[in-house]
Design brief:
It contains 17 helices and 24 strands. The protein is of the alpha/beta class.
Length: about 500
């Protein structure tokens, strides 16, 4: 029998005091899509960084088509036919699609770059992937899905045999995800072996041939796609049974606390009015670009509104800046926690304390003791896993980063909390914990406004749903438990 396309045998990786990987085995066949699953911190990224040459294993071996190889750098990984496509693309925005595809591997004749040949070859590759746009278009003008296709075309141009896709659907619309899966199917037919890392379970069951689960740095199980249930996969990932994906709760909405009337900003938000009650989880649904995040930014004072009013507990708010929103008791967990929610290079304690410094002042001086005491209280309450207060926020897993952001707003005693894509890029176990925390906050009578592109999450968590399309509210679903994804989509494309 032919050897597997890829074998990783007995892979160990240790950091100071931590066994990141423990005797991990992975196999990948040509033409196969292997879903690599596990909670944040389970070891998925470490294993793929070893395959991509960014890290060296402490023990174990890697074989490609039966031949033992040593991968000491990303360049060597690429020379062996291994291509890594991350959620944050490695493209030069000002260069064209063709120039990015051939960057570092230009077609030369007498030392001169052959732009026509590169453009023609790029066009061929894009058409093979089912994409139809001008290869001369600068990448900064392409959609996210088009940029992703440029990354895949570059991998094909490098004659990659192994393709690693890390959270490839995280920022794509539903239609773009369908296009991505069609591209993956084309790559499968070409004989590429693909490792797909993702947290959206519905997509995993749709795209993968086989699953492999890591838990605490060790192999927890491997399953053919038709031999595993959603519940069984979740239990394998978290190491314990979860009775349901979304925790149950009996909503008890109170009086209207947050009221917005006629909010507008250009064409992004057009005459939006809403009321949110204390004790309820109000979800904003809609397609990417519908205006949900733009509405959240108006409610947080991050953008100036052209028209409209905002009230909290009957009091009008000016909200001309985030500082005014924070002082009024409004907190925003941004869609992109890494770029907008945290300072990744700074310590976890510094990130926690930043919006709360006024609470730790004593005679005009910052009290480190008071800040540390508050930090410990909320970090323990939120069950944030870290090595210590000085651990950089960028070194935490996605779920723990999100809980750190939540902790700093809870310490601010916010009465209104806006969650923009609260579980994006977070594993199913951490999602459940965040859902429980959102329920607890709602039970305290706080206003919870949740923006999510995951329709099962919207239906599973919301007490009421507002749907947006092209900057306007197009409908309301008052009984999510009796509704469906189709009903939301019908309003989202109205």
């Amino acid at each position: 029998m032919a050897s597997p396309l890829l074998e990783m045998r007995g892979i160990d990786k240790r950091y100071t005091g931590v066994d990141a990987l423990k005797q991990v085995n992975l196999t990948l066949e040509a033409g196969e899509v292997l879903a690599l699953m596990g909670e944040n911190g389970a070891g998925k990224s470490t294993l793929m960084k070893i395959l991509g040459g960014a890290h060296r294993p402490d023990d174990g071996e890697i074989r490609i088509a039966g031949q033992a190889v040593t991968i000491s750098s990303p360049q060597q990984a690429r020379s062996l036919g291994i291509a890594m496509i991350y959620q944050e693309f490695n493209l030069v925005p000002g260069l064209s699609a063709a120039e990015n595809v051939f960057l570092g591997q230009e077609i030369l004749k007498h030392g001169v770059i052959q732009h026509v040949a590169q453009r023609e070859r790029t066009n061929e590759l894009l058409k093979e992937l089912g994409m139809d746009f001008d290869p001369d278009t600068p990448c900064q003008r392409l959609t996210i899905a088009q940029q992703q296709s440029v990354e895949i075309a570059r991998a094909l141009c490098l004659e990659a045999r192994i393709l690693v896709l890390d959270e490839p659907s995280a920022v794509l619309t539903t239609r773009e995800v369908e296009r991505l899966f069609a591209i993956i199917d084309q790559c499968r037919k070409r004989g590429l072996g693909m490792i797909y890392i993702g947290h959206r379970l519905d997509e995993i069951f749709q795209v993968a041939d086989r699953m492999m689960v890591l838990r605490d740095g060790a192999h927890a199980g491997s399953f053919a796609i038709d031999q595993c249930t959603r519940e069984g996969l979740i239990e394998c990932m978290v190491g314990r049974p979860l009775d349901q994906e979304f925790p149950k709760r009996e909503p008890r909405p109170g009086a209207v606390r947050l009221k917005a009337t006629g909010l507008s900003r250009g064409t992004a938000v057009q005459g939006v009015s809403l009321e949110a009650r204390g004790g309820e989880i109000l979800a904003l649904a809609g397609l990417v670009g519908a205006g949900r995040t733009e509405l959240a930014r108006l409610l947080f004072g991050a953008d100036r509104r052209d028209a409209g009013t905002i009230e909290l507990d009957g009091q009008p708010l000016s909200l001309n800046s985030p500082a005014e929103a924070i002082a009024s008791g409004i907190g925003l967990l941004t869609e992109d926690r890494k770029l907008q929610g945290l300072m990744l290079q700074h310590s976890s304690r510094d990130n926690f304390g930043l919006p709360n410094l006024d609470q730790y002042l004593h005679k005009g001086m910052l009290s480190g003791q008071a800040e540390q005491a508050s930090f410990e209280t909320y970090i323990q309450a939120m069950r944030v896993k870290l090595t210590g207060p000085q651990q950089p926020a960028g070194h935490l897993s996605g779920g723990n980063q999100q809980k750190l952001v939540m902790a700093k707003w809870l310490a601010r005693h916010c009465e209104v909390l806006i969650f923009d894509e609260p579980t994006r890029g977070i594993d199913v176990g951490a999602k459940y914990e965040i859902y429980q925390l959102m329920h607890a906050l709602a039970d305290e009578g706080k206003v919870i406004l949740m923006i999510s592109s995951e329709l099962p999450e919207v239906l599973g968590m919301a007490d009421r749903i507002l749907v947006m399309h092209e900057g306007r509210l197009t409908g309301e679903i008052t009984r999510p438990a009796e509704s469906s994804q189709q009903a939301i989509m019908a309003l989202a494309v109205a």
